[in-house]
Design brief:
Length: 298
């Protein structure tokens, strides 16, 4: 369940049919399926609601697994509802007069994200990088600081479809001009690595972002290795890795967007049904509108 904005709340609703000696188990993973947490066990038929909020708060992505046991056990329906935090300035707004809303669907791609802090004090409140099981050599766990003259941290990332590119954003420190990180990638399970970027010093703190293109066709797993060199201080404060991949069953499907706003203190709303990848709509506002919310339904 990837989102461009962090989740604030979450609720799972399911209508279960439980056979004799059967049950429905719901599990959740917030680290791309590396670990799973038991969320609920349903042992009787009927509508059940599960609060996901404590498990998805401040997350960008998570996965749900439903395990059915017992003859005749199944689901009549399942739905997930979320509130998420967003910047209104980054989303469509309305003005007085005629507003043209354009729907434009991108390529059928998905993204698997590894996003975490290196401050281990936040573990439990949010994801930290050790939740993604990196392989560390000469790295102090907190702040991912190089121990001694050199060290390295290797992360594995896998996608359900062919990877088309990797994207990476980091906040790092390389206090001396001799300090820094060399970023390497492997697409053959770690048999070989290629240097794709340098995070150079001197800097007490710097943010960098880069993209890795030219992924071999048919690749569904990658390894990203940060090789640190240290004379003074070399560490990482935070990092984010994105693996963009082709959706195996990708394509456009209709969806609804409901704009909710106020004019003169009165609530107004209009629902738009996008039935094509490229489509335009018109919303008219008689006076200056105040945006309240956008509701997206698939």
């Amino acid at each position: 369940m990837p989102s461009s904005y962090v989740y604030l709340t979450g609720s799972l609703s399911l209508d279960a049919v439980v056979g004799p000696q059967g049950q429905v188990r719901v599990l959740l993973s917030d680290n791309n399926g590396l670990d799973w947490k038991e969320v609920a066990t349903v042992a009787s038929s009927g509508r059940q609601t599960v609060d996901l909020s404590p498990l998805v708060l401040r997350r960008y992505d998570y996965r749900l697994r439903v395990v059915l046991t017992g003859k005749g056990t199944g689901l009549q329906d399942l739905s997930v509802t979320h509130d998420f935090s967003h910047s209104q300035r980054a989303l469509p707004a309305l003005g007085q007069g005629k507003n043209t809303v354009t729907v434009s669907a991108g390529p059928p791609e998905g993204t698997v994200t590894l996003q975490a802090s290196t401050k281990l004090q936040w573990k439990g409140k949010n994801l930290v990088y050790t939740d993604f099981h990196p392989e560390l050599k000469n790295i102090q766990p907190d702040l991912m600081r190089v121990e001694g003259a050199s060290g390295e941290a290797t992360f594995a990332i896998a996608a359900p479809g062919d990877i088309v590119r990797l994207r990476c954003g980091v906040h790092y420190r390389a206090r001396d001009k001799a300090d820094g990180w060399e970023v390497q990638v492997s697409f053959d399970g770690g048999e070989s690595f290629k240097t794709v970027h340098q995070l150079s010093g001197p800097t007490p703190g710097h943010c960098d972002y880069f993209t890795v293109e030219g992924v071999p066709p048919g690749t569904r797993e990658a390894m990203v290795r940060f090789v640190g060199r240290q004379r003074n201080t070399t560490c990482l404060f935070s990092l984010r890795l994105d693996a963009d991949y082709r959706e195996p069953l990708g394509g456009f499907r209709p969806f609804k967007v409901t704009y909710v706003w106020e004019e003169g203190g009165l609530e107004k709303r209009q629902t738009l049904l996008a039935e094509k990848p490229q489509q335009t709509f018109t919303i008219a506002c008689d006076s200056t509108p105040v945006m309240k919310s956008l509701i997206l339904e698939f």
